[in-house]
Amino acid sequence: MRITPVHPMFGAEISGIDVAAPLDAVTLEALRGALDGYGVVVIPDQERLDDDAQIAFCQNFGTLQTSITLHRKDAPRRMTRDELTELSNIDGAGQRIASDDTKRKLQLPGRLWHSDNSFRSPPGLFTFLHARVVPPKGGDTEFADMRAAYDELDEATRDRLCGLQVIHSLARSRELVGAPPLSPEERVNLPDTIQPLVRGHPASGRKSLYLSSHARDVVGMDEREGRALLAELTDHATQARFVYSHKWSAGDMVIWDNRCTMHRATPFPEDRYRRDMRRTSVADTEAAVAA
Ligand code: OGA
Ligand code: MN
Asked: Is the shortest distance between the CB of 46 and ligand 1 below 6 Å?
């Protein structure tokens, strides 16, 4: 197993590993160590990985979350296992779907900087995204290093942020991109959550800004002031020097730590090309306990 950094601040590529095969304890520990240190890990050439093998691999890192797409009856799922979320512009018959299709519109919040499942309790810890089909151009995924962004805040700002709590809601990111509002089932199953604005990252001993497009209001702060603060911090944290942009090849498995990174999808010519990605994630049960 070889680990090569992909960015001066975070992110690494790992080669010499087959995640479709059962992994021994030493390999798993090395992988976990790379994730804790780098926040984003790219593992190319995993064409052998199918849905079941992805779930089995993911189980090495914690308790899997079920897909929130289970709460939308108006957007048929292609996946047979509840733990899998598909990010694609393909229907059950393998045909491209229109960009105004409900299923596609529900994926639009992914174009805003976010941390996965920050609106759920427990929130997302690691996300595993496997590329099955990628377009020849566009569709890169950008990642931002929220530990580096925290480190570069001045001391007065850090003091001001310490102890602040933020309300996260799926309705917020949907509203920002004009995606369909919450379904009755989503309203029942995905109530708003409260998350700290600054989080510790136990494995690295560093602190991180915990931001997301799902973040709506700062608890105890005037609405305008709270939203301005979240916007200002997001602008800071997503400056080019904190960003790694991943250009996908089919077979890539990318894993990221949602406690200390944000990410966003970028556009591609959807009317011409297919993009088909499979996502699994594990829950941050420690955060739930802390809350
Ligand atoms: C995700 C996500 C971005 C992309 O899987 O959580 O935001 O580029 N994906 O598909
Ligand atoms: Mn995401």
From this structure: no
pLDDT digit string, tens, across residues 69-90? 999 999 989 999 999 999 999 9
CA of 265 to the centre of ligand 2 (A): 8
Task: Please indicate, yes or no, if residue 291 is contained in any of the structural domains.
Answer: no
Residue 51 counted as domain residue: yes
The atom of ligand 1 lying closest to the CA of 141 is 8
With a 6 Å cutoff on the Cβ, whether 277 touches ligand 1 is: yes
The CATH number covering residue 177 comes to 3.60.130.10
Whether 105 is in a domain gets the answer yes
* CB-based contact 42:13 (threshold 8 Å): yes
pTM (global) more than 0.85: yes
